[in-house]
Design brief:
With 438 residues, the protein is α+β, with helices and mostly antiparallel strands. It has helices spanning 2-6, 40-43, 47-57, 61-84, 110-119, 131-146, 150-153, 402-411, 423-429; strands spanning 17-18, 89-94, 100-104, 123-126, 156-162, 167-172, 188-191, 221-226, 229-234, 237-240, 246-250, 268-273, 276-288, 294-299, 311-313, 319-321, 324-325, 333-338, 342-357, 360-368, 380-383, 386-394, 418-422, 434-435. The strands form 5 sheets. An 8-stranded antiparallel β-sheet has the order 9-8-12-13-14-11-10-24, with no helix packed on it. The chain has a 6-stranded antiparallel barrel with strand order 18-19-20-23-22-21. It starts with a helix and ends with a strand.
């Protein structure tokens, strides 16, 4: 088990907290004022998202949309560069000013890679190691750990390739006492957070009655009841299944009875309202916890019309309408919505990562510096108006407010971290599944 834990886990580490918890009531959205310099698309963003962008990223709506689009252009360039310029390509990201950067190491294809990057309008920076070199270092570290005694190997809880600093980052139980091999002398070592314990909700009992007319959107609250346990979570992206059925994509750890998913005994999901539990929404048709953290909610007969929309919002407020899907790119602006904290924004800090959460390994995920608290699990993460991922694990879920979480982690020399499952990974594992878009 110790070697699998060590394999390229994200800097979120094994201390990530699943963000389940109590619901909160959000105010009704106010219309977004249309300013002369604001584009038509930016003017359609909900007021709550605009406020979160200004508060968390100091970005205007137009800047947010422009940087999100640029991030996807960088992602497309990276896919091509990894194949065409493997000796030189060392990663791509958005810097703090919102510029797309392509890193290149010395190699036979460096000149051609530089020309391609500059022709695409990207800034080129020279680095010592290619992306392939860093990947090989990570593999070499894994091999080294295989031969170490548990007292050393078990200390390492996560490894990430840091393309911005062109090195590796390790999360460790006891950073001060860890002696790394010579080939990792430049690696950064960060102490991991203390694991937290979740407390399930015990007051979740569905009630009978007619379905409300209001639609259900990404970020809205729902309760999950199964196996005698109840959990509060946030809806993710509304989707259409392979057979044309209404589906919502949320987090796998929101299923309190995961082994029964897809059976008559599957956990049920029901509406959470400001006054308490509401009508049945559906049941957990599929739940994944190992490798990728997601669930597919099969919407109940009579409730389908409530999920036939492509919105993501603060519960009870105005939505942002999803127009497509995206790849995570380091430095790109992202925002999540959830029942507790509504919209909160940050940037992608790591991609293609693996993280240990308790006794589970989550692979191919991405990390952000977004604050997410208990109850935000399963909520939708967007970049621009594109679906990006599902909220999975946070290191600050135990705090009552994001301001408290930010203050405490700042004192510790860290910051909020939210780990997520990419939406494209989920779609790839479920042929025919597609996110609702406009």
């Amino acid at each position: 088990m110790r070697s699998s834990i060590a394999r390229r886990a994200a800097v979120v580490g094994s201390a990530a907290l699943l963000v389940l918890g109590p619901a909160s009531t959000m105010a009704q959205a106010e219309p977004v004022p249309v300013e002369p310099q604001v584009s038509d698309q930016a003017a359609k963003l909900p007021a709550e998202l605009v406020d979160a962008l200004a508060r968390d990223l100091q970005l205007s709506p137009d800047e947010y949309l422009e940087q999100s689009e640029l991030g996807q252009k960088a992602a497309e360039f990276a896919k091509i560069a990894r194949t065409q310029y493997p000796d030189a390509f060392a990663g791509t990201w958005l810097d703090k000013a919102g510029n797309a950067v392509v890193a290149l190491a010395d190699g036979d294809d460096k000149a051609a890679a530089r020309t391609a990057a500059e022709d695409a309008g990207f800034t080129v920076t020279d680095v010592a190691q290619s992306e392939r070199d860093l990947e090989q270092q990570a593999s070499k570290l894994d091999q080294w750990l295989e031969g170490q005694p548990p007292a050393i190997a078990d200390v390492v809880r996560g490894v990430a390739v840091d393309i911005v600093h062109n090195n590796l980052v390790l999360r460790a139980d006891a950073a001060a006492g860890l002696q790394l091999p010579d080939f990792l002398t430049d690696a950064r070592v960060i102490p991991m957070f203390t694991p937290q314990t979740l407390e399930p909700s015990t007051d979740l009992t569905p009630i009978a009655g007619p379905l409300p007319a209001d639609a259900m959107l990404g970020g809205d609250a729902y309760g999950a009841l199964g196996g005698g346990r109840g959990l509060r979570c946030s809806l993710g992206f509304n989707a259409i299944g392979a057979s044309g059925e209404a589906v919502n994509i949320t987090a796998g750890h929101c299923d309190p009875n995961k082994n029964a998913a897809g059976t008559p005994a599957a956990s049920q999901a029901f509406n959470l309202t400001p006054t308490g539990p509401g009508p049945l929404l559906g049941s957990f048709a599929k739940t994944s916890l190992q490798n990728h953290d997601y669930s597919l909610l099969d919407i109940a007969d009579g409730a389908e019309h409530r999920f036939e929309n492509n919105g993501v919002r603060v519960p009870g407020a105005g939505p942002v309408h999803i127009t497509g899907t995206a790849d995570p790119v380091v430095g790109a602006p992202v925002c999540k919505s959830g029942l507790n904290t509504g919209f909160s924004c940050g940037v992608v800090t790591a991609v293609d990562q693996t993280v240990s959460v308790g006794n589970r390994m989550l692979t191919n995920g991405f990390a952000t510096n977004i604050c997410a608290l208990q109850g935000d699990s399963g909520g939708a993460i967007v970049t621009g108006t594109l679906a990006l991922g599902i909220s999975s694990a946070s290191n600050v879920g135990q705090y009552p407010h994001c301001l408290v979480a930010q203050a405490v982690t700042f004192v510790m020399g860290e910051g909020p971290e939210l780990f997520a499952t990419p939406i494209k990974t989920i779609l790839g594992e479920n042929p025919g599944l597609r996110v609702r878009t406009s």
